[in-house]
Amino acid sequence: MRYKLDFSPKFNVLSPSITGAIVSASVRPVFVAWQPSTWPATASAVDDNFVFILKGIFEESMLGEISNVIGDVHKVNGDLQHRGHVVAVALMCALDAIASYGYRKHHVSDFIKAHFRPDYNPHADRIYELYRCSLVHSWNLFEASICPDNTKIKLDGKSLTLGLLDLFECLVAATEDFLEKLTYDAALQKNTLERYEELRNTARP
To answer: Over the stretch 40-72, which tens digit does the pLDDT of each residue have?
Structure first.
């Protein structure tokens, strides 16, 4: 797979701010994934270079950071118990952000239906409300549950259940699939270029 995500350590001699806009750098770095003010100008059309820029944004500033947190928690705790909400919130925010590039109105459910493993598809419309909205706005889950492992998504009675590690693996694979399809899907290309331009234009140097 050409756009397979790589979470191995990246070495960079630049030392920009780790969050927010760069406010005091004497030399602007060429590209820092979590600094939209350093992103290259929006391409006139989707090409290989543009897809690799997106890959870097998703890989370094979103999914790679979550992978690091999961790895650190496993080293300290052995598993994700008692850290699950923090990881789940981050995963839902990453899913929301990545999905917003290629899709509009029902972006999370549309992204899941188009790129996730098939067993997620029947639950795609409920994931945004039951997980993303509940976790981000209320911190807790009310009609769903999470497991700190690779549990596959399923209905447990009337409650939807999924495993955090399985969700992470599926989101990584779905992101790779999105990047591959972006090379030839005209609708994805249009939406993604518009979203990239919108985000880049809101950044301040």
So the answer is: 999 999 999 999 999 999 999 999 999 999 988
Q: Among 168, 150, 177, which Cα is nearest to 69's?
A: 168
- String of DSSP letters for 104-171: -TTHHHHHHHHHS-GGGGGGHHHHIIIIIIIIIIISS-SSEEEESS-PPPEEETTEEEEEHHHHHHHH
Count of residues in the chain: 205
Q: pLDDT tens-digit profile of 97-156?
A: 999 999 999 999 999 999 999 999 999 999 999 999 899 998 888 989 999 999 999 998
Distance CA 80, CA 159 (A): 21
Domain segments of the chain as ranges: 36-202
Q: What angle do CA 61, 125, 71 make, to 5 degrees?
A: 30
Instruction: Give the amino acid at 118.
Output: P
Structure pTM? 0.87
Q: How many helices (H) and strands (E) does the chain have?
A: 7, 3
Half-sphere exposure of 17 (CA within 13 A, CB side): 14
Q: How far apart are CA 140 and CA 169, in angstroms?
A: 22
Cβ(146)–Cβ(135) under 8 Å? Answer: no
Residues 162 and 145: their CA atoms lie apart, in Å, by: 7
Angle at 131 between CA 148 and CA 106, to 5 degrees: 135
